[in-house]
Amino acid sequence: MRTGTNKGSSAGKSMGMMFLFLITGAIVGGILGELAASSSLLSGVAPYLIKPFPVFDLPPVAINLYVIKLVIGFALYPNLMSVLGIIAAILLFRRF
Question: pTM (2 decimals)?
Answer without folding.
Answer: 0.74
